[in-house]
User: What shape does this take?
Amino acid sequence: MIRSRQIDRPQLVLVVDDQEINRDALGVILEDSYEVICAENGEEALSLMNKHFADLSIVLLDLMMPVMDGYEVLKRVNEDERLKSIPVIVLTSEKSAELKALSLGAADFITKPFDVHEVIIARVRRIIELSEGRKLISAAETDALTSLYSSNFFYEYAGRIYRYHPEMKMDAIVLNVEQFHSINALNGREFGDEVLKKIAEAIREYLKDRNGIATRTNSDHFGIYCAHQDDYSDLLKSIQDKANSLSENVAIHIRMGVMPYREGIEPILMFDRARTACNSVRGNYQNPLMVYDEAMWAKELYDRRLLNDLSRAAEEKQFKVFYQPKYDIQCDPPRLVSAEALVRWDHPELGMISPGDFIPLFEGNGLINTVDDVVWKQAAEQCARWKQDYHFTLPISVNVSRADVYDLSLVDRLARLIKENGLDRNNIKLEVTESAYTDDSRRVLEVVDQLRERGFEIEMDDFGSGYSSLNMLSQMPIDVLKMDMKFVNNIEESDTDMRLVKMVLDIAKYLELTVVAEGVETKGQLDLLKQAGCKLVQGYYFSRPIPAEDFARLIEKEISIERN
Ligand code: C2E
Ligand code: CA
Ligand code: CA
Assistant: This one.
């Protein structure tokens, strides 16, 4: 409800205090700017509020009074739609009372003995402005399921603590339930609701003798704003235990992110960072508690910068494609047979950025298509150019991100690229990482099938890094296995590793798949792989990924060997 006031009259302030000396003091402080009326107790205050509600701008309310105290007044005001819109500032000498008053809807406090006059006048003015500008959330709104605060009220309240109590060092905590949707799906929503209630119960218990407030923002997301603690593992444990007390058959895992108090950071931002910390331990059942630190902040800023600069980078051709050769090592000397296209970001200010720094980021944001489009186009053009310049066909593999697989136009995009550059289908090969197959095998298998029908060759990248079973492998529509680097790393030192490599080679032979060993760096590794019958090798031993101009030298060398 919006209350109007006559413009030409001073604003009306009601001072409620049982002690005359306080009423007088405030009267003196405020009388130059406001018209002041007074009440000696809560009852009198309510009756004056009712009488003057239309033009009362603010109430300054003492908490400790005979007849009816300030808390009771706040409660009644909150229950009254009309009175609720009048802002109340609480007069108090006790810290703990302030929080309680805030939760009952007080807009602010003035501490006793009274502050500097200017401070009081400024606070009164500010609150009046605020309440005239927008209706303050007054009554404590709660979430029906858990009775924790609603997120609106929670953030409003946290904001007040932050603004008016800079001396209180508050931490922001965010917690979620791992795989909550599957808990609901497997055990029913009612069970899910019980879990949430247990969590709320544990949080409330924890906050009972600490300064703090809590919310459930949505579904299984909880927030706590609480006086600084050095360690929250107790809280996490008690929540975990309570949630798991419901059923012996369902294991509930909680993850938690903490942003410890830092001066001058608003609650909203504190919670953003707590959320970042919490997300960083998603799925990490061993260490589900993460405290936000400088490194995370730096990474976040860096990521934001990259996201921000992406479209410009594509326009300005900052993405450079490097090529790394693959050699057939069963020939003597080894023969150059193909290449992998690997992107780099030549950023005008940040320098050369490696794909490990931005590919996962863009995959997570659905922006990877932008990068892959650029890379595929450059790779196709390059392949055509080498064909023309050297009459040498060097098939180029490009990386297909799992996000690309969800793009319905993928098959057409690739087909068009081939046509526009006058290439054959087998000139561009597609590397799909193993983990994409395990993420959503049905969709990936479908798309990969279509691509193969259209004549594209598929290489399974990073084989051995994920969890595809041998059984799955036999059904997968692939042509080439790229054995993950970690297989090769230690084959010179470890017999076990070498045996694993041999096993992969055996399986591939059985399934009639070609194997590419990645990450080959030494002559020793090369020799072992050759003896074991591995056909193709890619790695620093032959060459790092290099720009097209440099790669041309490798082609020239290859041609001269072939001629002799
Ligand atoms: P990947 O597809 O497994 O590529 C192989 C990575 O291993 C490359 O890292 C390559 O430079 C590196 N490498 C090659 N030989 C050796 C070696 O002998 N020793 C060692 N230690 N490393 C070697 P890079 O270029 O940093 O790329 C990292 C990942 O980024 C790639 O892993 C791939 O998953 C992704 N990526 C790169 N370019 C693209 C792209 O254009 N699109 C997409 N979607 N992903 C890309
Ligand atoms: Ca690859
Ligand atoms: Ca790989």
Residues 324, 342-343, 354-356, 359, 368, 372, 375, 399, 401, 431, 461-462, 518-521, 538-540, 545 surround C2E (ligand 1) (CB under 6 Å). DSSP finds 21 helices and 20 strands in the chain.
